[in-house]
Design goal:
Layout lengths: L7 H6 L12 H6 L6 H12 L7 H9 L5 H5 L6 H12 L5 H15 L1 H16 L5 H6 L16 E5 L2 H7 L1 H13 L2 E4 L9 H5 L3 H18 L3 E4 L2 H10 L6 E4 H7 L14 E5 L6 H11 L6 E3 L20 H17 L3 E4 L2 H13 L5 E3 L1 H7 L4
Parallel strand pairs: 1-2, 1-3, 3-4, 5-6, 5-7, 7-8
Bound molecules: iron/sulfur cluster (SF4) (2 copies).
One iron/sulfur cluster binds next to helix 3.
């Protein structure tokens, strides 16, 4: 998260306009529009912050469509802090958003990140099953996954803290129960917060830094109370936030994929064979070490056939609010992924970030393709020998 002394003009001036980031930017790849590139967005944000550019529908689009994939920051030779610049730009622009957009944004964040919001969504999702509604929100609600997660064996002595994050708690109980199933096999107890705890990424990347700061503080307090020196997450979007904002010498964080891959107790003898063709989606937020470990772990399943996307694009277009209100570039990125899936025809797709999984699942439903998107850990748990 940007520090309180962050200077937007100074950070933007660090950009030498070399354009080396541009070919790596997914929204530029699908739009071929400079304003949809990192360099273009930096120029727009600088001009807006200095009063040389007024708020407009197109400026809003270019700010919102960025998926915060951070491919640009990773390749920038001048170390431009792009993440801080886009977060700061969205924060500045927040007051200029149409009232309806601002309300939708604030409501969505509040509902997703609070216990009461999850209860409310559960009630609404039951109601929407009876009323015929066809919009992005109603389709998302149909993917709510609040089933019983199963219990962690109390006899287990060793334990690990799992932070599911807000969206994971709401939409991805299936992955949580899969993790518990594997941990039980390893005789490890899972400590899970009994209330919704958000990692702060959604607020931070939508321009609400104070709210993000409060959420990160709550996570730190929880880890301290639990004496949790080591904790894991299973949505790579949260994982990146934990790595950047929470992890330190006191609290060590790993993505569940890397944590399992590092465990000497997980090996091919644990799994039944699976003859399925599995398409692997690697989210932009998944760190390099975990990316390698996704294939390493899945290859422990005998007979599995792992496949790669063939569209040449890294990002699926999801990320923060783009899942709820996607711009044209975000839709094009998703369409490219869905077309790729249509040509590959896998039996199942695995993705380690719930935002990407929901985005892909909605796209598949719209295209009439009956293929499930699950977390790699869910596939591992399904193949466990009993
Ligand atoms: S952000 Fe970095 S890579 Fe992109 S144009 Fe600026 S200096 Fe070059
Ligand atoms: S974060 Fe990703 S989508 Fe946004 S400008 Fe950088 S490369 Fe493009």
């Amino acid at each position: 998260m940007m520090s309180t002394t962050f200077n937007l003009t100074k950070a933007a001036d660090q950009c030498v306009m070399c354009g080396m980031c541009i070919p790596h930017c997914p929204t530029y790849q699908v739009s071929q529009n400079e304003a949809e590139s990192p360099r273009g967005r930096i120029s727009l944000i600088k001009a807006f912050s200095e009063g040389q550019l007024s708020a407009s529908a197109s400026l809003e689009t270019h700010l919102q469509s960025c998926t915060s994939c951070m491919k640009c920051q990773q390749v920038c030779p001048a170390n431009v802090p792009y993440q801080d610049i886009i977060d700061s730009g969205r924060h500045l622009y927040r007051g200029k958003l149409k009232l309806s957009s601002r309300l939708l944004q604030k409501m969505s964040i509040a509902v997703l990140t609070h216990q009461w919001g999850h209860q409310l969504l559960s009630i609404i999702s039951v109601a929407t099953k009876r009323i015929s509604m066809d919009n992005q929100f109603a389709r998302l609600l149909k993917l709510l996954n609040k089933r019983n997660i199963g219990s962690t064996a109390a006899k287990n002595q060793q334990s690990i803290t799992i932070l599911p994050g807000c969206t994971g708690s709401l939409f991805d109980q299936r992955t949580l129960s899969s993790i518990i199933k594997i941990l039980n096999l390893l005789n490890i107890r899972a400590n899970i917060p009994n209330k919704v705890m958000c990692c702060g990424a959604l607020s931070q990347h939508s321009g609400y830094p104070q709210q993000a700061h409060k959420q990160i503080t709550a996570i730190n307090n929880y880890l301290s109370q639990q004496n949790a020196n080591e904790f894991v997450s299973f949505a790579s979007g949260c994982g990146r936030q934990f790595n950047e904002q929470v992890a330190n010498e006191q609290f060590q964080h790993k993505d569940i994929i890397s944590w399992l891959a590092d465990s000497t107790s997980v090996n091919s003898a644990n799994f039944e064979s699976c003859a399925q063709r599995v398409l692997v989606h690697l989210p932009c937020t998944l760190e390099d070490y975990a990316r390698e470990n996704v294939t390493k772990l899945l290859n422990l399943i005998p007979s599995i056939k792992l496949l790669e996307f063939n569209d040449g694009l890294s990002c699926c277009g999801a990320g923060g609010m783009q899942l709820i209100s996607p711009e044209d570039s975000n839709r094009s990125l998703l369409n490219s992924k869905i077309n790729s899936i249509g040509t590959i025809q896998p039996d199942v797709i695995v993705s380690s970030n719930i935002g990407c999984s929901l985005n892909l699942q909605l796209g598949l439903q719209n295209a009439g393709l009956d293929i499930n998107v699950i977390h790699p850990v869910t596939l591992l748990a399904r193949q466990l020998k009993h």
